[in-house]
Write a structure and sequence with these properties.
Order of helices and strands: HHHHH
CATH architecture: Up-down Bundle
Shape: elongated
Helix content: over 70%
CATH superfamily: Ferritin, core subunit, four-helix bundle
CATH topology: Ferritin
Structural class: mainly alpha
Number of helices: 5
């Protein structure tokens, strides 16, 4: 059985992951609308990945005999000046997710809940990868610039980071 404090913080994380999935849908839609097909594909995949993160948490709470609270999702921001702002917004979101995951780790350690601490370590590692990925994208945008043909090159570079046809995401056409 889950401690009520752990159940509460995991439900909060379920909401955060669900919101992140919707945020990536909004970012992908913006990119698609602006002709960034590679970036749109990449962000649609990340939306699916965030939903998977949410479902993994949801199933953990159920498996531990807890009560899941399915969250309401707010409409995400969808207006951006440029591709750099899109990825700054995504990077900021990943940093917020990392902070929330760290809260779960701290609480699980405080409560000696080693099962939850072990479970959440997957997310700790995932967030390390995610933050690094978005930092790399921002570094590439900074290096390439945003003028003229640079936008096309940025889109190609981001497309290379996609899981592609072998990935778990199904990208709408």
């Amino acid at each position: 059985m889950l401690d009520k404090k752990i159940e509460e913080i995991l439900n909060k994380q379920i909401a955060i992951e669900g919101q992140a999935s919707y945020k990536y849908l909004a970012l992908a839609s913006w990119c698609d609308n602006k002709g960034f097909a590679g970036a749109a594909k990449f962000l649609f995949e990340h939306s699916d990945e965030e939903r998977m993160h949410m479902m993994k948490l949801l199933n953990y709470v159920i498996d531990k005999g807890g009560k899941v609270v399915v969250p309401a999702v707010e409409q995400p921001r969808s207006d951006f000046k440029n591709i750099k702002e899109v990825f700054e917004y995504a990077y900021d979101g990943e940093q917020q997710v990392t902070a929330a995951i760290n809260e779960i780790v701290s609480l699980s350690l405080k409560l000696n809940d080693h099962t939850t601490n072990n479970f959440i370590q997957w997310y700790v590692n995932e967030q390390l990868e995610e933050e690094n990925l978005y930092r790399q994208i921002l570094d590439r945008i900074e290096l390439i610039g945003e003028g003229g043909n640079a936008l096309y090159l940025i889109d190609l570079e981001i497309d290379k980071l996609s899981k592609g046809a072998g990935g778990m995401a199904v990208i709408p056409e």
